[in-house]
Hints:
The chain is an alpha+beta fold. The protein has helices at 2-5, 20-23, 29-33, 47-51; strands at 12-16, 37-41, 69-74, 77-82. The protein has one domain. The longest helix is centred in the middle third of the chain and has 5 residues, at 29-33. The chain is globular, with a radius of gyration of 13 Å.
Amino acid sequence: MVRLLAIPEWTATILLRKPESIESEINLKNYLADGRLKIIKGNATSYEDVKSLFDKKVDVVISTIGTFKSEIRANDRCITWIRI
């Protein structure tokens, strides 16, 4: 995710059951402070919680439900993230 946010025009919204598990991550503090990263408390298996994430245009959805390590490609860059 940090690699995605390194692309200046990208922003991210994260749905977490336990937001406190990521809010203290030093690598994310600047993105949280400048509004490029938004954390929402919720459950990804809840239709209403997921639906609330789509109140504006969405370009990419990344799901880590049931996975440990995943990989995507964006702008010919390989981005890897690990579920927290």
